[in-house]
TrEMBL record:
Keywords: DNA-binding
Protein name in UniProt: SOSS complex subunit B homolog
GO terms of molecular function: DNA binding
InterPro entries per record: NA-bd_OB-fold (IPR012340), SOSS-B (IPR051231)
Gene Ontology cellular-component terms listed: chromosome; SOSS complex
GO BP, sorted A to Z: double-strand break repair via homologous recombination; mitotic G2/M transition checkpoint; response to ionizing radiation
Length: 137
């Protein structure tokens, strides 16, 4: 299991992690498929999680989700954690999980590593917290 703070963008990831859903955005249609975005976190970091199809109805705020074989990549210039075609998202509990809201891994500007262009490294923090789901306090 990886912590959210350990994930980095890549064309082909294989991320296995667990997190709690802090906030869930509205469901929208992307072509013929439902899509929604959520703010999720574990005890190390937060990230934007993209849900597709049945995932939009299956998970709610407070759900603890285990994600297997997932990816952390760009979709329409937004860096998102998502199950992808090979991945699996499963509810494994609710409400009782320690978490932090910063850093938000989706709010970091990532650039190719100068010594290996297949690896990305953080260049700068775009925002200390989610710009999609701003803090309420």
């Amino acid at each position: 299991m990886q912590s959210l703070k350990e994930i980095v963008p890549a064309a082909s990831n294989n991320i296995n992690t667990k997190f709690i859903v802090l906030e869930k955005g509205r469901i929208a249609l992307e072509g013929k498929q439902k899509m929604c975005l959520a703010l999720v976190a574990d005890e190390t970091a937060a990230v934007h999680f993209q849900m597709w199809g049945d995932e939009c109805d299956a998970f709610e705020t407070g759900d603890i989700i285990r994600l297997e074989n997932s990816i952390f990549s760009y979709n329409r210039n937004n860096l998102l954690l998502r199950a992808g075609k090979r991945g699996k998202a499963e509810k494994v509990g609710e409400f009782t999980m320690a978490f932090v809201e910063t850093p938000n891994m989706s709010e970091i500007r990532w650039v190719p590593d100068p010594s290996n262009s297949k690896i990305y490294v953080p260049e700068a923090v775009i925002s200390p917290c989610s710009r999609v789901f701003p803090p309420m306090h």
